[in-house]
Amino acid sequence: MPQVAPHPREILLGAQAVAHVLPVCDHYSGVEVRMRKSLQLQAEMTAEFGHCVFDVTLDCEDGAPVGREREHAELVASLASQAAQGARVAARVHTVDHPAFAQDMAIIAGQAGQRLTHIMIPKVESVDDVLVAERALAAAGAGQLPLHALIESPAAVQRAFEIAAHPRIQSLSFGLMDFVSAHGGAIPASAMTSAGQFEHPLVVRAKLEIAAACHANGKVPSHCVVTEFSNTAAMQAAAERAAREFGYTRMWSIHPAQIRPILSAFAPEDAEIARATRIICAAIDADWAPISEDGVLHDRASYRYFWQVLERAHQTGRALAPQAQGWFAG
Fold this sequence. Notes:
By secondary structure, the protein is α/β, with parallel strands linked by helices. It contains 14 helices and ten strands. The strands form two sheets. Strands 1-2-3-4-5-6-7-8 form an eight-stranded parallel barrel, surrounded by seven helices. The longest helix is centred in the first third of the chain and has 18 residues, at about 30-50. The two termini are about 25 Å apart.
């Protein structure tokens, strides 16, 4: 019986492989009609691309009306449970110190834990908050679910490496608006804009700390929102800077019009995809030994980079050459 060759992901990434399979876009919605439309759009784009290209996160923190937190949590659990096969649905619950937190976790993780991809915990300040969430998952019978943490304060940025190191954490997100407001006016409002957030030194430092913490621990850094959702050019420019200059491999969307610009900004160029395909194919033919391509030496270090180019191309719905398509089938 012939042996099946190991998948390039296993050869090149090993234990880090899981961190590279998250879609590059995480779309948030909290009002019922928008949550339903988001799930419908996800199904439509899954049919278009042949696989799911963005997550839908159903929001309790900003979506639940005050006094109706239980009702909203039950709605989120119901929508997640009824989502189409192959859908990627997550939930953002209230903060761990909110009176509705335990209820959110019991209802959402308890009723829909088998359908959810992860739970997002907002305003995480330390590993202690992660431990509280982890215990709540276990109590709900959903101990297998990954946690994503939203870093929104100067103190949390200081602890980003420790938070990212926790094995239950899969991704860290940067909460721009709360981070700026936490500085008591020391950072101007312009730092919350699509362009200004890449210029103010304290905001830049926070972005870089979070991205570095994630990469050091094999986790996914997720970039913050762009509030000018009707300005496609601003959205595209911010997403491109997040991906190319700040090391982010995922980004939040808060409006359906932002999803495709995020996919486009995080996608490799056609020439880079073609080159990555050539190099990975040649590496396989060489049984992963070093090769020369146009007079340039490549070995497993560069193979990892070019494999990740192909993974990002797949995640963003870009066309792959026939010889590469089989690596992403199923």
